[in-house]
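Priority: low. Protein: Peroxin-7. Input follows.
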Amino acid sequence: MVKVFCCQARHGYAVEVSPFIPSRVACATSQYYGIAGCGTLLVLDEMETGVVLVRSWEWSDGLFDISWSETNEHVMVTGAGDGSLQLWDTANHDAPLRVAKEHTQEVYSVDWSQTRGENLIVSGSWDQTAKVWDPALNRSLTTLRGHEGVIYSTIWSPHIPGCFASASGDGTLRVWDVKSAACRLAIPAHKAEILSCDWCKYDQNIVATGSVDCSVCVWDLRNVRQPVSQLPGHTYAIRRVKFSPFSKTLLASCSYDFSVRFWDYSGNQPLDTVEHHSEFVCGLDFNLHIPNQVTHTLFITVLSITITVKILVLADQM
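Result:
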C-alpha cells in the first residue's frame, strides 16, 4: 500500500512521525536544494483516502530537520540554513513560538530527548558544534566542540540520560556526555563523510551510521575496533538511517540512489529494497504506534526534489 502527498517547488529534507498521533507526520523542506530561498514546515495527516495537509508555515531560509516534542503533542522544533532553531505549535497558525540563533552556519540536525527525567533538545551544525537547549529554546545550556568537520546528525540515546551521538563530515561517530560537556568516545567509523546515525531502541551499546561511501555500519560501543556489521548495497550516499522501534536488528536506510533499503544487521542481510521515488530520498521514519513487531511496519519517506511523501507498509520479511 502506498499513499502519496506531493508539493511542488519544495525539496524535502526530513520527516518525523508524531509520538502522540499515529496518523500525523511533520516534514522539513526547502527551496532550491536549500542553497537559496525559503523553507516550509508541513504537518500532514494520513487518511483512508490519502495524505492531507493539516497546516504549513514558511521560514525565511531552508529547513533541514524536524523533531516532535516528547511531552507536548502540538510542539515541534526545526533547524534552518540561517543557523537558527524554531519552536512551532500546531495551534499557532502564523509564526514560530520562539526562535534561537547561536549557530553561525546551517543547523542540519535537531533531536528531542526521549528518556524520562529530562526534556532537552540537541542541535548539530555546519559550524562543527553541537548545542544542547532547554525546550523553551532559551539560551543554549552547553556547546560541545570536537568534530573537525560539519555535523550532519545528532541523536539522543533512548536509554542513557544526557547522552547523544553525532555524525560528521570528518568521518567520525562521537558519543557525548552533556553533564560533563565532554566527548566520551570518538570512532573513525568511515573513510568518508557520515551523513546520519541512529541509536538502537533495544540496546544502549548499538549505533548505526550511514555514509557517503554507500555503506551502513553497525557499531557496538563496547568494542569499536571494527563494526559488528557492514551493509553494502546502496549505490550513492546514504542520507539517513533509522532503527525499527519493534525489532532489535531491523533498520532502514534511504539514499541519493532513490531507494529505501531494509536490513537485518544480525545476518548482514538485505530484507527488501523499495524504489518508489524518482529522485534523492532524504527523510525516513518508522511509525512508533504500530504494535505488530516487524510485520506491516509503517514508515514514511520524503523526497528531496518535488516533495513526495509516501506512506508504505513493509510486508513480512522475517
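The longest strand covers residues 50-59. The chain is about 0% helix and 55% strand.
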